[in-house]
Structure formats: structure tokens, C-alpha cells
Design goal:
single chain; alpha+beta; 8-stranded antiparallel beta sheet; 19% strand
């Protein structure tokens, strides 16, 4: 069964029967995890998201680490490009899915007209579409109805993916980087700082800052193009953005509980998480074995009761036959 069909049926079952009541609740981290029965995802600007993720009074976001980054291109008419992040909870089995992209608040007709002119080579000015950019973060718990929707790939293609073998960014570090990219170019320009520029810049900055390992798509995604017309390269300015990110992180108020970007600390924390996960899996296996033994014992007890009932029935029948014989004599 394909991923799309699996997501469809899982959403359908949750819609009809509700969430599994035995599933543990996700951690309460606003802007990242949603309740299991949430009807809406968390949606806010990159600036608001950074404010929540870097609040030193709630340091849990610093213990939520990015497992994977995927860069996608939509199959829709405007061919929107965006990033999707899978972020592990600090404890328990849950993960969050976070989708980040740049859009602009204009009418669809205006945008499609500008796209058509650009793809036809009739639009040479970057000021042809210059508006305040809307850089938005949408998040939900993986395995929920809204989380499945954000994870769905049926209407987009994979441009590239990124993993972090040795030093994964935390949610609060990611929020700072996204806010820096947003502030670096706050205007949406169709040719210079559109959704492709935002996704590519954030993606490359993550590679540089956290030693990410890239796994490109198969090449059929046509990333950085508008209807087969390649967007001009305006430079991603990754090095400058990384410098601004480091400067901003140093200026943030620190909490004693906040995990810093030290590779050794991260490796130790990752080892502890893996050990905890192994213990959880071992406990689950033990519980399954206990339940299996209990079912076997119950089956044996049932068979023993049936055997005793059969023996009693045979004894009663024998006594009746003996009594009948005595009366006959």
C-alpha cells in the first residue's frame, strides 16, 4: 500500500473512531506539538515562532531535535516550494511535522499573471512583484489528522533532503535561523526572493551550520523554475546569514536548562535518547510476552475446566447406569 493510501485510511479511521485513547499525550510545547484530538494545526509567522521557541522560561524546545529536512515543490499552478521538518519530542514516541514556506498576500490572478509574464520572458524587472513576504510556520503532531495532512506528498515533488549524522539542530535553533532568513530579505520579489529563494537559503544554511548530509531528489522536480523557465540566480548569501544567525544566538538570554549547540553534549543526549528508546522497546516486548503467556494460561485454564466438566459428566453417567442396573436386578 502506498504512503498516500496509508495516510488516507489512517485519517479516515481517526475521523470515524477518534484517536487511540491508549496513545500517550504529546508534550505541551506551544507552536510545535498539537493535542491528539486537535482540529487545527499551529500556524504563525517565523518571527512569532522564534519568540515561542526561544522563550527561556520554557526550554523544552531546545531538547527537540530535527531528524530530517525535506525540500518540496508543489504541483499546483504557482509551483510553490517549501521545507518540511520532522522534529523529535524530548521524551516519548511522538514527533512533530513543521512546514515552512514563503508566500505573498496578493490575488491569485495577479500572481498567476506575473508568473506567466516571467515564464514568457516578458518580465525582466525584479520589481514586477514586490510585496511584503509572508513567511509562515505550520506545525502539528505526527500521527494526528492534521499531522498526516502536512506529511502528505500526493501533490508535491521532492527536490532534496537533509539529515544530520553528528549535530542536529534543535527546534529553538531552527526558529532563529528561519527568522534570520526572513529578516534578511523581507520583501517578496518574483525573481530574487520568492519561495524558491527562501527554501534554498534556509536549506543551505542548515547544511553549513550543522554539517548536514544532502540527498538530492531524482532530478525531475524542476526546483527553482516557473513553468520550465529557470529563475535567475541572485545568490543565497548563506555565509552572511550564518554569521547573522550565530550573532543572534549569542545575544539570546540563556537558561541553565537550555541545551547549547555543543556537539559532545548533543551526542551524549542522543545516546541517552537511544538508550531510553531501547528500554522502551524492551519493556514493550516484555509486556507483549507477558500478555501472550497470560493468554496461554487462560486457554489452558479453560481447557482444564472443560476437561473437569467432561469428567464430572462421565462420572454422573456411570453412576446412573450402575443405579439402573441395581434396580433391574
Amino acid at each position: 500500500m502506498s504512503m498516500q493510501k496509508d495516510n488516507f485510511f489512517s485519517r479516515l479511521l481517526r475521523c470515524v473512531f477518534g484517536m487511540n485513547l491508549l496513545s500517550p499525550a504529546p508534550p505541551t510545547i506551544y507552536g510545535l506539538f498539537t493535542p491528539l484530538d486537535a482540529r487545527y494545526p499551529e500556524r504563525q509567522s517565523t518571527y512569532c515562532w522564534e519568540t515561542h521557541m526561544t522563550n527561556w522560561q520554557f526550554p523544552s524546545s531546545s531538547r527537540c531535535f530535527v531528524e530530517k529536512v525535506t525540500w518540496h515543490k508543489s504541483n499546483s499552478v504557482d509551483q510553490h516550494e517549501f521545507l518540511r521538518f520532522t522534529i523529535r519530542a524530548p521524551y516519548g514516541p511522538h514527533s512533530a511535522v513543521v512546514v515552512v514556506g514563503r508566500t505573498v498576500q496578493i490575488t491569485s490572478v495577479t500572481k498567476l499573471s506575473a508568473i506567466f509574464l516571467t515564464s514568457s520572458g516578458c518580465c525582466a524587472s525584479s520589481e514586477s512583484l514586490a510585496q511584503s513576504a509572508v513567511d509562515e510556520v505550520t506545525a502539528a503532531t505526527v500521527g494526528t489528522w492534521r499531522g498526516d495532512e502536512l506529511m502528505d506528498n500526493h501533490n508535491c515533488r521532492l527536490v532534496s533532503s537533509l539529515t544530520f549524522p553528528s549535530r542536529a539542530p534543535s527546534a529553538d535553533e531552527l526558529s532563529t535561523l528561519l527568522a534570520v532568513v526572513s529578516s534578511y530579505r523581507e520583501k517578496y520579489h518574483l525573481l530574487e526572493s520568492q519561495c524558491f529563494w527562501y527554501a534554498r537559503t534556509a536549506f543551505k544554511a542548515l547544511m553549513e551550520l550543522f554539517e548536514g548530509k544532502e540527498n538530492p531528489g531524482d532530478g525531475s522536480h524542476k526546483g527553482g523554475r516557473i513553468h520550465s523557465s529557470k529563475l535567475p540566480s541572485s545568490g543565497t548569501h548563506v555565509h552572511e546569514i550564518c554569521r547573522m544567525y550565530k550573532q543572534k544566538r549569542e545575544a539570546l538570554p540563556q537558561s541553565p536548562d537550555r541545551v547549547h549547540a555543543d556537539p559532545t553534549t548533543r551526542m551524549e543526549l542522543q545516546a541517552l535518547r537511544e538508550e531510553a528508546e531501547s528500554c522502551r522497546q524492551a519493556l514493550e516486548a516484555t509486556e507483549m510476552e507477558r500478555q501472550q503467556v497470560q493468554r496461554q494460561n487462560e486457554q489452558l485454564l479453560l481447557e482444564l475446566q472443560m476437561l473437569k466438566a467432561g469428567q464430572r459428566s462421565g462420572t454422573v453417567g456411570r453412576d446412573r447406569r450402575m443405579k439402573g442396573n441395581e434396580q433391574a436386578d
